[in-house]
Amino acid sequence: MKIPYFPGCTLHSRAKGLDSSTRASLAALGVELNELPQWTCCGTVFPLALDNYMGMVAAARILANSSREGGGKLATVCSFCYHVLKRVNHAIKHNEEVRQKLNTYLEENYTGEVQVLHPLEICRQEVGLEVIKEKAANSLKGLKVACYYGCMLVRPAAEMQFDDPENPSIMEEIFSALGAEVVDYPHKTACCGSYQILHDSGLVKQKAQEILGSAASKGAEVMVTSCPLCQFNLDALRESYPELPRIPVVYFTQLLGIALSLPEESLGLQEHYVDARPLLLGRRG
Amino acid sequence: MVQQDIASYIYQISGQNPFLCMQCGTCTASCTGREAMDFPPRTVMRMLQMGNLAVLDLKSIWVCSTCLICTARCPRGIDIARLMEALRVINLRRGREVLVAEKIPPELLLKVPQMALTSGFRKLSA
């Protein structure tokens, strides 16, 4: 199965491990991600002012380009990219004014027909948990995993249609199927503070303490996420604040790659501040 | 902008009606940034209802991380994140901003994911 793929700007620079581990783990599951021949930044945030059409142009252009790749699908893994592409697609599909303005400006005739898919959805719906279980060496047995969703994947539920916005479970289903012991903790859809890292890093530090502390109190050994900004905020801040809990924070595709026994160089685990390698590498079958 | 117009001006930008708010405080209880705010979201909503223009000068509107948890949980169906964005937009379109590239510590600038810069500047810079 081949699916057009939009990596997004961060995955070509500061989160290369998310890009390489996503491609490698999906390839191992029989899904080939074909990077779009031409793409730009998605805009990162969905504009919330009704008259801000400019904030939707980049995402609309990416969606229109992806519709020419065939297959009617577009995969993207960064939570922000997924959020923006999915909401702009929804707006183009359901709001005539948005559709008309963006198409006129871009000289396109795109109507929102592409289905934006997250690799988590690809794993569950396109591949299936049974196949994942078959292909994995079940090497996550006993590992205590905290699945962290953050804000952008799940909200707003009506537009994202991703999972239950208060209690999503798609990551838990995948890692439970792989033998991991997923921990239940109340902060999995809490926000890490996001871009406030640039403006009020004290706020982000407080959020990191709450989220990591909550997962640690339930015995989590590792936390998984799909967002490079969550990963940075929860992980890298520990360089400045060593008192924060030291649970490694990795991308879910990196842990999936461990279960699939992928080579170390495709995982990019060396990018993180708190090193997950001593905990995870020995588990590869 | 006269006092009674702030709610309708906000409605024009956000499509949201602050008078629907019944002051239950679910937004405040859920808010990511509440501890760093001068007034929490419930109070922001009340200030809008009362036409209090001081709402435009609050620190709160810049501490919002648009995580949408207030929007997701509001029992009155108000998209509170859009209201907060409208308050930022009114400021930003007058050139009032809080995030200035030159003031970001260089050691942080070299490490943060690109998406933090794009999103931060889109939300907090004019």
Q: Which key terms come to mind for this protein?
A:
heterodimer; A: 285 residues; alpha/beta; Glutathione S-transferase Yfyf (Class Pi), Chain A, domain 2; Rossmann fold; 2 domains; four-stranded parallel sheet; two-stranded parallel ribbon; 12 helices; 42% helix; 9% strand; globular; B: 126 residues; mainly alpha; Fumarate Reductase Iron-sulfur Protein, Chain B, domain 2
Give structural notes.
The complex is a heterodimer of chains A (285) and B (126). By secondary structure, chain A is α/β, with parallel strands linked by helices. Chain A has two domains: 2-117, Glutathione S-transferase Yfyf (Class Pi), Chain A, domain 2 (Up-down Bundle); 136-283, 3-Layer(aba) Sandwich (Rossmann fold), CATH 3.40.50. Chain A is 42% helix and 9% strand. Chain A has helices spanning 16-28, 54-67, 79-94, 96-106, 119-127, 129-135, 157-160, 170-177, 201-217, 228-235, 252-259, 277-280; strands at residues 2-5, 32-35, 73-75, 115-117, 144-147, 181-182, 222-225, 249-251. In chain A, helix 10 links the parallel strand 7 and strand 8 (249-251). In chain A, helix 3 (79-94) packs across helix 4 (96-106). Chain A is globular and about 55 Å long. Chain A starts with a strand and ends in a 5-residue tail after the last helix. The mean pLDDT of chain A is 97. Chain B is mainly α. Chain B folds into two domains: 3-94, Alpha-helical ferredoxin (Fumarate Reductase Iron-sulfur Protein, Chain B, domain 2, Orthogonal Bundle), CATH 1.10.1060.10; 97-126, no CATH class. Chain B has eight helices and no strands. The radius of gyration of chain B is 15 Å and the shape is globular. Chains A and B meet through helix 9 and helix 10 of A and helix 5, helix 6 and helix 8 of B.
